Amino acid sequence: MTAAPEMTITSLxxxxxxxxxxxxxxxxxxxxxxxxxxxxxxxxxxxxKALASxxxxxxxxxxxxxxxxxxxxxxxxxxxxxxxxxRAGFQExxxxxxxxxxxxxxxxxxxxxxxIALSVEQSRLEAQLPFLASVGSxxxxxxxxxxxxxxxxxxxxxxxxxxxxxxVVAPGIAEALIATAIGLFAAIPAVLAYNRFAxxxxxVLSRYEIxxxxxxxxxxxxxxxGRSTTGH
Length: 232
Known about the structure:
Elements: H1 9-14, H2 18-59, H3 65-74, H4 81-98, H5 103-126, H6 129-158, H7 166-225
Helix pairs in contact: 2-6, 2-7, 3-4, 4-5, 4-7, 5-7, 6-7
């Protein structure tokens, strides 16, 4: 009696039907892209927090805001959200004061500039998170499709043989289950990373919003004091 060929993960993948192989390829590519985004986003949030701390320390050190504005204007760091907010708000404040706009109009302009800057920072922080959410939510279903297709193909093949044995259907069912396993392998890290990064994004954005409110309050006092900004 001839022994059945040994089944391995590699042999099952290579022997899978074209549809199941296509499903596996899609899931592997999704997983690779997810991990690339996970590593990149992790670095982005770590850098955003560090730069926020650095700029807040400079801002609250009592330095003159005009000098600080000149410094960040000469060597801007566009990765620093707090710096971008300060630059947008203070430059708009100076522009409107030079035009002799009244205090109310000045603060309305500053508020608009800060809202726009916050929206830009939110877009930067949340970039590529929808892809992780999509991978996390759809990968199990894509893998399930490959599983269903593989099992269906196995039973179709089973109907064509005279003697049905486990050795006949086992390879088809096994390769089908591999598609589900790959789907879960792609989905689980994506879901965990999305939840973590969404929380990190909310935390950093909350920090930016607090900074914007504090900057607006300082500029509001300066605008209504009727004098030029010298410090805070």
